[in-house]
Known about the structure:
Layout: E1 4-11, H1 17-27, H2 45-50, E2 57-65, E3 68-76, H3 84-92, E4 96-102, H4 109-120, E5 124-130, H5 139-150, E6 158-159, H6 168-178, E7 191-200, E8 204-213, E9 216-217, E10 221-224, E11 229-232, E12 235-239, E13 243-246, E14 248-249, E15 254-258, E16 272-275, E17 294-300, H7 306-319, E18 324-330, E19 334-341, H8 344-358, E20 362-364, E21 371-375, E22 383-385, E23 397-412, H9 416-425, E24 429-435, E25 440-448, H10 449-453, H11 456-463, E26 469-480, E27 482-489, E28 492-493, E29 499-502, H12 503-520, E30 528-534, E31 537-544, H13 560-580, H14 587-592
Amino acid sequence: MKHIRNFCIIAHIDHGKSTLADRLLDFTGAVNEREKQNQLLDSMDLERERGITIKSHAIQMEYTHKGQDYILNLIDTPGHVDFSYEVSRSIAACEGALLIVDAAQSIQAQTISNLYLALENDLEIIPVLNKVDLPSANPEEVTDDIVELLGCDASEVIPASAKTGIGIEAILTAIIETIPPPKGDPEAPLQALVFDSVYNSFRGVETYFKVVNGSIKKNQQVKFIATEKVYGADEVGTLNLTQTPKQEIKTGDVGYLITGIKDAREVKVGDTITDAKFPTTAAVEGFEDVKPMVFAGLYPVDTEEYEELRASMEKLQLNDASLVFQAESSAALGFGFRCGFLGMLHLEIIQERLEREFNMTVITTVPNVSYHAYTRKNPDTIVILNNPSDLPDPSGLDRIEEPYIKASIITKSDFVGNVMSLCIEKRGQITSQNYLTPERVELTFDMPLAEIVFDFYDRLKTVSKGYASFDYSPIGMRVSKLVRVDVLLNGQSVDALSALVHLDNSVGIGRKMCAKLKELIPRQQFDIPIQAAIGAKIISRETVKAVRKDVTAKCYGGDISRKRKLLENQKKGKKRMRQVGSVEIPQEAFMAVLKLND
Length: 598
């Protein structure tokens, strides 16, 4: 056990985590020349296309230091704020972390938030200054920033370049000498923490775990504590580049388990595996349930694919435990699911993965957040609103509370004015302004979560020319003046387009929605009125004009009453058509509501 080291790599997005992981694998000989490729651990096509890490990946390396063989278990983690749950799970399975900072971009918001996650779990931190070979790098200045953040010595910061391979040996030496070996009792009953799982259509659910106490052997009977079900361990092994079957995985090591489970719901990330005959009394602690930030409805395009969509989402949930969903139905779209996501990028990635991995085409409704409503009848009972259509009758409402977040934005001092005006436009209140260096400022705001859901991150990048980094944490609920804006098409309310918005912004949003829908809804044989309403009050209207046929074309000259008669007949036909005709809403219309400011 004392020759095992479990560590993860944490950093802000684009600071070179995956490239550093590649170099560590090269250096320790974990991959041969034929298997080499850039971002080796980013196995998903989507990760390669976008150049981001979405999943954390575990891999085992072997390294000889001073004549002694060591086993190093590396978990590469994502850097984007929307995948912070992946990071928290990786941290729970490690004893140490490499904190990577880009020598050109310095410390950014996600660096700090991931660092705090690691410190809460008592991890040993090894600071690495990456990309020192870049012409734009400021190694001395950024080293000072790291020293100030961690309170370490400047000599402890390892200068490295993942691209050229500078400093890789120093990093491996630091991992072995600084990170403590895993603690645990090899003689105690088996206790293993499930930190990830994937669905394999041939072998069922593959569970990734870290052994905390005891050991797990092939063909042993194991029990999952949360579901209390017993299975046989058909295969156990370690996670090298390909899975390597072993007879036994001992205390402190990381491995995979195949039990032939076919039902995705029977494995929960954060669960504890134990021996069926001599079970442990306590589950492993250190996992909290994920808190979704953004809610949206996912509906199958064809309602007959509902069960297929459910099965696909359960398999996807295995691979991405931060996806939360429950069944719901909509008058406009039929049966579907109300899903909770950690952010807009997460929503986009899930939609894309459903299409690529499961061939499911889905319609996404307008994302929103979860509100609390209180009625006058029961002022102490919370009504949770995940969907604007759940809002109780406004005449009986006492108050609505919305979730607030504490937003931390780090930017260059030149852009402070732009960032402030954007945050104030989004109903933010500034709580502190802190100069980290003469060039870099940290701004802290209290903001409603609903305001950052749509386009806040994109606009923040625009106003700061890409130099602002953003991170947030929830701070509870506050009372707000919110109203529901409904969209009526041809007099029928479309529940999938309803939105809960602040009273001050409601008229502007209603107008923009109507104008946007007018562009997107195709013309029919009859006029289509598009209206935005708050309760019974119409606040905005646009009309999609009918496609006209010139019925008077055959009348040349002659009496006006002949033309009038033809036009009146046409008018009657249009009126009748409007009563029975239905309006098709294209998928772009649901998503366009998000881009109202474009």
